[in-house]
């Protein structure tokens, strides 16, 4: 297990299946936490045992709102004095019709949820990392980012944007002590996916804990030579 004692990890999508696994794994490794999600009730339900801890800040905001994101980062810095790690976990998936039949609002929703959130959080956190002279950013793309799929156009494009954002930020900051990487999960073993695909071989899917372990590696000092990578984490799926 890696030691993140004294470090501050900001985790978006923290009330979700993957986000909660990432947050709990960072917590077991000694990190102080800024846990961000849309619903304060969801955060409190997920982290009821942590709500009053001095080393945990719960923040309920709309991550597509630039002003709200900046205010959250300002609060985190005021509370902890630094942000060493940004884990961009927030995102989502929807199927849809063929691309020519896709409503503009559905396109905007996927691009906002999966790409705009990564842009805004990175944009707000990087000045803090520049000031402290170091930082790690790990975002979640998807296997579907590498190849267009029918009736998944907005999702594939939005996750491909995460890879390009990762590569751009890594190139911009490789001499500033800031490492920027992303992971490409395969099918994640969640209750929702099991319900949607009951006949699949769930043992071949990748678990949230498996993904959390890779994210922690990319955030640790031992991964200092890795930046600009899009790491496949497919399990056997």
Could you characterize the architecture of this molecule?
The chain has helices at residues 17-28, 40-46, 66-80, 104-132, 153-173, 191-196, 208-219, and strands at residues 8-12, 32-37, 56-60, 85-88, 135-140, 178-185, 230-233. With 237 residues, it is of the alpha/beta class. It has a single domain (8-233), classed as NAD(P)-binding Rossmann-like Domain (Rossmann fold), CATH 3.40.50. The protein has a 7-stranded parallel β-sheet with strand order 3-2-1-4-5-6-7, sandwiched between helices. Helix 4 links the parallel strand 4 and strand 5. It is globular. The two termini are 26 Å apart. The model has no long low-confidence stretch (mean pLDDT 96).
Quick recap:
This protein has helices at residues 17-28, 40-46, 66-80, 104-132, 153-173, 191-196, 208-219; strands at 8-12, 32-37, 56-60, 85-88, 135-140, 178-185, 230-233. It is of the alpha/beta class and 237 residues long. It has a 7-stranded parallel sheet with strand order 3-2-1-4-5-6-7, sandwiched between helices.
Within CATH, the superfamily carries the name NAD(P)-binding Rossmann-like Domain
Strand content: 15-25%
Mean pLDDT: 96
Shape: globular
CATH topology: Rossmann fold
CATH architecture: 3-Layer(aba) Sandwich
Defining key terms:
single chain; Rossmann fold; 7 strands; 237 residues; alpha/beta
Topology, pairings included?
Layout: E1 8-12, H1 17-28, E2 32-37, H2 40-46, E3 56-60, H3 66-80, E4 85-88, H4 104-132, E5 135-140, H5 153-173, E6 178-185, H6 191-196, H7 208-219, E7 230-233
Parallel strand pairs: 1-2, 1-4, 2-3, 4-5, 5-6, 6-7
Helix pairs in contact: 1-7, 3-4, 4-5
């Amino acid at each position: 297990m890696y030691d993140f004692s004294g470090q501050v990890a900001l985790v978006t999508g923290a009330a979700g299946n993957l986000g909660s696994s990432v947050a709990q794994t960072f917590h077991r490794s000694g990190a102080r936490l800024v846990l961000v999600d849309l619903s304060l009730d969801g955060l409190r339900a997920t982290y009821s045992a942590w709500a009053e801890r001095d080393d945990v800040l719960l923040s309920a905001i709309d991550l597509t709102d630039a002003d709200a994101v900046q205010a959250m980062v300002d609060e985190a810095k005021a509370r902890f004095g630094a942000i060493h790690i940004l884990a961009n976990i927030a995102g989502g998936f929807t199927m849809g019709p063929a691309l020519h039949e896709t409503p503009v609002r559905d396109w905007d929703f996927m691009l906002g949820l999966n790409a705009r959130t990564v842009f805004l959080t990175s944009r707000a956190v990087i000045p803090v990392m520049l000031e402290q002279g170091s930082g790690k950013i790990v975002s979640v793309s998807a296997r579907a980012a590498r190849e267009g799929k029918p009736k998944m156009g907005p999702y594939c494009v939005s996750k491909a944007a995460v890879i390009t954002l990762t590569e751009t930020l890594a190139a911009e900051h490789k001499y500033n002590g800031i490492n920027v990487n992303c992971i490409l999960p395969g099918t994640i073993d969640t209750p929702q996916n099991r319900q949607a695909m009951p006949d699949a071989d769930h043992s071949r899917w990748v678990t949230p804990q498996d993904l959390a372990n890779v994210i922690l590696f990319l955030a640790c000092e031992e991964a200092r030579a890795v930046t600009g990578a899009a790491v496949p984490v497919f399990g056997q799926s």
